[in-house]
Write a structure and sequence with these properties.
Elements: H1 2-8, H2 19-39, H3 49-60, E1 70-71, H4 72-83, H5 88-99, E2 109-112, E3 130-133, H6 135-141, E4 151-153, E5 160-162, H7 171-175, E6 177-180, E7 185-188, H8 193-205, H9 211-214, E8 228-230, H10 233-242, E9 244-250, E10 252-257, E11 263-269, H11 276-288, E12 295-300, E13 308-312, H12 319-329, E14 333-339, E15 341-343, E16 349-351, H13 354-395, H14 397-406, H15 410-418, H16 422-429, H17 438-463, H18 465-483, E17 495-497, H19 507-510, E18 515-521, E19 525-530, E20 546-553, E21 557-562, E22 566-571, E23 583-584, E24 597-602, E25 608-613, E26 617-622, E27 634-635, E28 645-650, E29 655-660, E30 665-669, E31 682-683, E32 692-698, E33 704-708, E34 711-715
Helix pairs in contact: 3-4, 4-5, 8-13, 8-18, 13-16, 13-17, 14-15, 15-16, 17-18
């Protein structure tokens, strides 16, 4: 009864909802909030909400380029207090980035104080730094006072903020943007404003032009840190056509000649987004690990300009060869992954190509021009109305003065007698006596005529799209003049290479060739001993012992064949050295716990290997088909359930001898075994309650050699065991080992 009463008292606004439905509904709301209000830029002004609110707050504080600086803490306080209810650290970090000339191609904030550096050091606290707007930011907000864009209520409803900036400056492409939302991301590089303006001018005149034509003007990204865009024209066109693609960016370097034929390499520009200190540390780490055989030393001699010194190990090493290896091994070369995912004018996220982005910018500028023209027309109409009233006053000055002096309420009398509006009468009554002179009357007539002319021009602009875009073209030309290639800020920084220079280097050229002995223990520990040593004296962990060993060089590939039928490849230089017991092989290759290595050998071209399972099935595989490119290895021998890969033998002879655990042996021609790249193979020998024990290739004229007693016995008369593949076989020759192994 009590429970029923409590249910009856339950508030009426509570209703039962499926948890899955409520969760998905709320997650969708969160996802859209992240996409629209945080992570993706608007295609029209290239800004995210936090950046837009920062600039607007600074404008409200009158932090123009020609005024003094104000503390960043003051700006951040206004932003989070009025417009952006988020953490002060996030807002300040966004502000700092807008001021960093190595992070933003055309900074929107002029910072004073420590705003971080290209080494990755953070900016000073906001209480120590000061800031103001740059001319770029002013151009971005030009028109906010002219009703150029809509204003929305702030989060608390007390003030208003612009929903988008008028954006006379093409900020999205000029400064780029990056962000990660829910289920999507954006990564747009910066570009050269002069080139963007040229492309916009061409698009105005040729709206149906192909995308490739846009790229005759926009050569590619123009990063704040310069560098070299080492990409082909075809790849650049493809990336900008689809809105997605990867482009290689390299450091810019030069060869500096020294005395006695020596030289050093000077890196003057590094790829965008790579902290210089981290780059140098990684190069130094690879150098200490002997993974950069051509490099002797790396030094940072940078001041306000980047200067990284690379010393080659020998003057005979070509500089191009050294740099090519460094490009492949370090962040001196990166892939910039273009993803032009933006919010369109309807706040819908989508990936745009370069032409769609430029067209969206022009459409936005057209809307801004229309709104500003209408706003100006309203101002002109209001002013012309006042001017008409002033001119009527001059024509009837004596009567106006008489009415004002004699009437208790002159307003209705003047409105009735001269057919004036209330606005005109208010302006006349507020007119100063000093304005009542002949010269002022002439100025008013001239102003009225000028306004009438301007009004006609604006009205013509509103009905003529071609005239509007001609006006927009003039605005774009002004932006190019202010920020284009002929200015210090606008000069192109990133060099565009038609294709990256390719230097083909064998692996031996990249690694110091040193003799080593690779040892694998029974418990799966591997190590490399310097030199070609005798493995008989090698010590192992307690309970462990030698399983396999090979003598090779650091430049050779070592191949492992495992019971799961996979081949694995490991470069000799990658095998752990030192005086210890090595490390587990599974740290270097992805060998499953239930698999074990059955063979280890040095890779050589033009060799053939027999792979066989324990059930006696196998085939021959060529060496070119066993090299694995990944840690996961390469599957070659398919093994059935209950079976496993058992052995791998070098094919060296015209005949092959096969023996099983039942001590039955057969001999047949090597040609009977097929050569395959992958499969289960064919039956080598038939078994009844037995399995494969060993295989040996030999030449019939030389006979079959095997250990016997205290020496090696060679059996030359093999006719008794000679048969076809897949036979049962006969007992081996007298003296054959009881282990059923042919020996090495």
């Amino acid at each position: 009864m009590t429970d029923q009463n409590e249910m009856e008292k339950q508030p009426p606004n509570i209703k039962d909802t499926a948890f899955a439905g409520a969760l998905s509904e709320r997650y969708l709301a969160y996802a859209m909030s992240t996409i629209v209000a945080r992570s993706l830029p608007d295609v029209r002004d290239g800004l995210k909400p936090v950046h837009r609110r920062l600039l607007f707050a600074m404008r409200q504080l009158k932090l123009d380029p020609n005024t003094g600086f104000k503390k960043c803490a003051r700006v951040v306080g206004d932003v989070i207090g009025k417009y952006h209810p988020h953490g002060d650290v996030a807002v300040y970090d966004a502000m700092v980035r807008l001021a960093q000339d190595f992070a933003v191609r055309y900074p929107l904030v002029d910072g004073q104080g420590n705003f971080g550096n290209i080494d990755g050091d953070r900016a000073a606290a906001m209480r120590y730094t000061e800031a103001r707007l740059t001319p770029t930011a002013i151009a971005l907000m030009d028109g906010l006072d002219d009703n150029a864009v809509d204003f929305d209520k702030t989060y608390d409803g007390e003030e208003e903020e612009p929903s988008v900036m008028p954006a006379a400056f093409p900020n999205l492409l000029a400064n780029g943007s990056s962000g990660i939302a829910v289920g999507m991301a954006t990564n747009i590089p910066s570009h050269n404003v002069g080139e963007i303006c040229d492309a916009l001018q061409y698009l105005i005149k040729h709206p149906d032009c192909p995308i490739e034509k846009m790229l005759d003007y926009i050569q590619g990204p123009d990063f704040p840190t310069g560098g070299v865009l080492a990409e082909t024209r075809a790849n650049i066109v493809k990336a900008y056509t689809t809105g997605r693609g990867a482009m290689k960016v390299r450091a810019r370097w030069e060869k500096e000649e020294l005395s006695h034929g020596q030289y050093q390499i000077i890196v003057t520009e590094i790829p965008y987004g790579i902290p210089k200190s981290d780059l140098i540390m990684k190069i130094a780490k690879l150098l200490s690990e002997k993974k950069l055989p051509f490099l002797a030393d790396v030094r940072d001699e940078s001041t306000d300009k980047v200067r990284i010194v690379l010393e080659p190990k020998s003057r005979t090493v070509p500089a191009e060869q050294l740099m090519e290896h460094l490009f492949k091994s370090t962040d001196l070369q990166i892939n910039f992954n273009l993803n032009m995912n933006v919010l369109d004018a309807d706040h819908t996220p989508r990936v745009m190509n370069i032409k769609e982005v430029l067209a969206a910018f022009l459409k936005h500028r057209d809307n801004v021009l229309i709104r500003r023209s209408k706003f100006r027309l309203d101002k002109i109409a209001h002013r012309m109305e006042l001017l008409q009233g002033f001119l009527i006053t001059y024509l009837n000055l004596d009567r106006v003065i008489e009415i004002i002096r004699n009437e208790d309420d002159p307003k209705p009398v003047m409105m009735r007698e001269f057919s004036l509006s209330e606005v005109q009468v208010e302006a006349i009554l507020n007119m100063r006596l000093r304005s009542l002179k002949r010269l002022e009357e002439e100025a008013l007539k001239k102003e009225f005529e000028d306004l009438a002319l301007e009004k006609a021009g604006l009205e013509g602009l509103l009905v003529d799209e071609q005239a509007r875009f001609a006006k927009i073209g003039e605005e774009i030309a002004a932006i190019k003049k202010q920020f284009g290639q002929k200015t210090e800020l606008g000069a192109r920084r990133t060099m565009v290479a038609e294709a990256a220079p390719v230097v083909d280097m064998p692996i031996e050229a990249l690694i110091e060739k040193e003799p080593i002995t690779v040892v694998l223990s029974k418990k799966g520990w591997i190590r490399a001993l310097k030199g070609h040593v005798d493995v008989a004296d090698i010590k192992f962990k307690e309970g462990d012992d030698l399983k396999l060993s090979v003598r090779t060089y650091t430049t050779d590939n070592i191949v492992f064949f495992a019971t799961n039928g996979r081949f694995y490849t490991l470069l000799g230089d990658k095998v752990t050295g030192g005086r210890g017991f090595g490390e587990p092989l599974r740290l270097s290759i992805d060998l499953p716990e239930d698999a074990d290595v059955v063979a280890m050998f040095v890779y050589k071209t033009d060799e053939k290997w027999l792979v066989a399972s324990q059930n006696g099935k196998g085939f021959i595989v060529e060496s070119k088909d066993i090299i694995a490119q990944t840690r996961g290895g390469k599957i070659v021998l398919n093994v059935a359930t209950g079976d496993k890969a058992y052995l791998c033998r070098l094919v060296a002879g015209d005949h092959v001898a096969v023996i099983g655990t039942n001590r039955k042996m057969i001999v047949f021609q090597t040609a009977e075994i097929p050569t395959m790249t992958r499969g289960s193979g064919v039956i080598l020998q038939k078994y009844i309650e037995a399995k494969l024990s060993d295989v040996k290739f030999f030449n019939m004229v030389e006979g079959l050699a095997f250990p016997s007693g205290n020496g090696i016995h060679v059996e030359r008369n093999m006719q008794l065991w000679l048969s076809r593949r897949a036979s049962i076989g006969k007992f081996p020759p007298v003296g054959f080992p009881r282990s059923n192994k042919f020996g090495s």
